[in-house]
Write a structure and sequence with these properties.
about 35 residues; mainly alpha; about 85% helix; about 0% strand
């Protein structure tokens, strides 16, 4: 059961990292007004 919680924590961490990268790319591509 401990392995499952660890696996879920790693998944959520990877998801957070990916969403942060997407947010940075979008903010960089957005036109600066």
């Amino acid at each position: 059961m401990l392995q499952l919680s660890y696996y879920m924590a790693v998944l959520s961490f990877n998801h957070n990292m990916k969403s942060m990268q997407c947010f940075r790319v979008l903010s960089h591509k957005a036109p600066r007004s």
